[in-house]
Amino acid sequence: MDRLMVGPSLSKEERTAANARLKIGFVALVAVSMGLMALQLDPSPAQLLGALLGGAVVGTVLLWFVLRTLRPMRP
């Protein structure tokens, strides 16, 4: 019986692109979440934009923290 070799299903380029999309999605999720929370307070457009931008900053910091924390666990 032939033995099948099992390797990575994604190429290095595809893996890099998928990681970039996940990072962008994570930051966007945090930013949109903060924007939705701000909508509960009936903000002005400038305040809503500030909440979205603040959420993007917080999401970026959280992403940096998570990636830094998980770095030692990489093979």
Helix and strand composition category: mainly alpha
In total, the number of strands is 0
Order of SSEs: HH
Q: Into which percentage range does the β-strand content fall?
A: under 5%
Shape: elongated
Uncertain residue ranges: none
Query: Taking all residues together, what is the mean pLDDT?
Result: 92
Rg, nearest Å: 19 Å
Proportion of residues in helical segments: over 70%
Describe the sheet with the most strands. Answer: none
The span between the termini is: 32 Å
The number of distinct helices, counting runs of at least 4 residues, comes to 2
Count of structural domains: 1
Keywords: Membrane, Transmembrane, Transmembrane helix
Transmembrane segments: 20-41, 47-67
